[in-house]
Amino acid sequence: MRIFDPHIHMTSRTTEDYERMAAAGVKAVVEPAFWLGQPRTNVGSFTDYFDSLVGWEPFRAGQFGVRYHATVALNPKEANDPRCRPVLDVLPRYLDKDGVVAVGEIGYDSMTPEEDAAFAAQLALAVAHDLPALVHTPHRDKARGVERSLAVVAESGIEPGRVVIDHLNEVTVQLVRDTGCWLGFSIYPDTKVSPPRLVEVLKAYGTERVLVNSAADWGRSDPLLTRATGEAMLLAGFTDDDVDRVLWRNPVEFYGQSGRLDLSDIDAPEPTFAGNSILRGGG
């Protein structure tokens, strides 16, 4: 089973997570820029963070045979902080980087006017830079948040097939299904969607335009739940080809629209560095 996790926050995870993921079949990941849990107080803290997403973290992933790409954005939660909104002015610099395959996470947290403005501005950046967009839907009042997100996407003029509406559930999937946008599902231990629930969604709606991710971060989450979902699909009667489509070919198709997805030599052995858990740069 080959796995591409299209939404996972490896900055929050450990070296051991990379080792476990690689052993479970995770060969590629996309890390969206997100809220780190501690409020950031200036634009410089974002640029340092973005630099790590396009520099250090791909290097760290490569030590364990995992191909890494990122998305960058001003996340919805911090779009409400006036100290953070100038981040919108520095995003174009990062949206031109080779390893950046989408604008994200963008969307809504509390559905404020400030979030409206940041969401629309970043969809415009996605259009201008010819990139897909990854849309975060709010944890509270999700149905209304999804409806409002779809309205903003429609107003932006971006092609729906270049947008994934993430963190969906059984209540919201139908809202997105007929719009042409991609359907994103986060598999969590306690919240969002579990592997058995996702299997039922796939039975009802099929595997087309579906992205399944762990969204593993600094909270209670599990980077191996993509693997667990594939196993649950097989137990439910889905074929190996169905699993490969959901866990590999779909994310490749979606992020491949960026023109920057590099999966060349994905099965080539990675170098090892004896005597150290990670090769460290610098002199």
Describe this structure in words.
The chain has helices at 15-24, 43-54, 56-62, 87-95, 113-128, 142-156, 173-177, 195-205, 225-235, 240-256, and strands spanning 3-5, 26-32, 67-72, 100-107, 133-136, 163-165, 182-186, 210-213. With 283 residues, it is α/β, with parallel strands linked by helices. The protein has one domain (3-256): Metal-dependent hydrolases (TIM Barrel, Alpha-Beta Barrel). The protein is globular. The protein starts with a strand and ends in a 27-residue tail after the last helix. InterPro entries: Metal_Hydrolase (IPR032466), TatD-like (IPR001130), UCP005295 (IPR012022). It comes from Micromonospora sonchi. GO terms for molecular function: hydrolase activity, acting on ester bonds; metal ion binding. This is TatD family hydrolase.
Cα separation of the termini: 40 Å
CATH topology: TIM Barrel
Major sheet description: 8 strands, parallel
Give the tally of structural domains.
1
So what's the CATH class? Answer: Alpha Beta
Low-confidence stretches: none
Shape: globular
Give me the strand/helix succession: EHEHHEHEHEHEHEHEHH
Number of strands: 8
Percentage of residues in helical conformation: 25-40%
Per CATH, which architecture? Alpha-Beta Barrel
- Sheet with the most strands: spatial strand order: 1-2-3-4-5-6-7-8
**Rg, please?**
18 Å
Structural class: alpha/beta
Share of β-strand residues: 5-15%
Under CATH, the homologous superfamily reads Metal-dependent hydrolases
Q: What's the average pLDDT?
A: 92
Provide a count of the helices. 10
